Amino acid sequence: MNSQVTAADGTHLRRALELAERGRGRVSPNPLVGAVVVRDGKVIGEGFHAELGGLHAERVALEDCRERGEDPAGATMCVTLEPCAHQGRQPPCTEAILEAGIARVVIASEDPTEKASGRGPGILRDGGVEVAFAAGAEASAARLLNQSFRKHARTGLPLVTLKMAMSLDGQTSTAPGDSRWISGELSRAMVQRWRADSDAIAVGIGTVFADDPLLTVRQASARQPVRIVFDAQARLPLDSRLLASLDQSPVLVVTAPGADPGRVRALEAAAAEILVAGGSTRAERVEAALADLGRRDVTSLFLEGGRTLASAFVAAEQIDVSHTFIAPLLLGSSDIGSVTPGPGRLTALESSAESVGEDTLITARYKEW
Ligand code: AOF
Ligand code: ZN
Fold it and tell me: pLDDT per residue over 18-42, tens digit each?
């Protein structure tokens, strides 16, 4: 039995999307999911997936009904992702929905994982539950919410987000030894939030030589992403701040098969993890590294620089989203090193601009998952 999605369902789905958002940074590699239970136009239960390994949103919302002294039997559940039908870290949500006697389920997005892909909705329909799929704004918002989960489920690769900051004349770094930032304070706070929301952060070895970055999230309660250095020749300095801060989060060095074995051993001895990415071009090595990271359940990778790394990812056509901060500065360099185009080209599907403090942030999306 299929049913129509009403304007009221849309309102409840938007609420469910808001709830889902609260799990951000805490559920990966699982999706962000929110659910709202409604009877006779009244919300009787709400829930979201709050922690990897914790209850799914649907069960949290049903629990919430009971805590409020409400009976979910006969009610509608509006949920941002199709309910699961498999036994994983948690039991299937379809069972909980059927047991509770929910009469109707409105779903904002399908689950592209192999074990899901429509099985849950099928089981619900077989159990006599009306199932409706939303379209339009709520459906695209639900897909947008879980781009990293969806790409990882569909391709086995992490979602790649490229961040850049530049002056009005296109310069992406200040002079060596000049520690002043290009982008403003608000922009940098935003970058901290993106880091905290990523499973991994990557830089190229050139950026390590130039900046010796720490790449941690400066927020006590945040989960620390894995720090990755693309370093074909295994040149990461043993006294780098990255290796000096392994107590905060792991460091993974992506090398090429031809890297000097002595250097690789020294990095291993310093407790860095080594990922050997094969392939005859930089683009192929990017693809190999992404596949390996995906197998380690890295669903999102945040690229922090520099140009060489970005160019390899563009050549591999492996950038899904980019965030470019443009700061109101002229740095006046006569050698910005970006005049030669790289081997790749990616055109955005959509882009938008906003003000962040004094900076302008341009966000572009290249692929939709
Ligand atoms: C979630 N939260 O609210 C919903 C999910 O290992 P498990 O048992 O936690 O199962 C994870 C899968 O369950 C996930 O990949 C997705 O397919 C499905 N739905 N997952 O983490 C939720 N509803
Ligand atoms: Zn579930």
Answer: 999 999 999 999 999 999 999 999 9
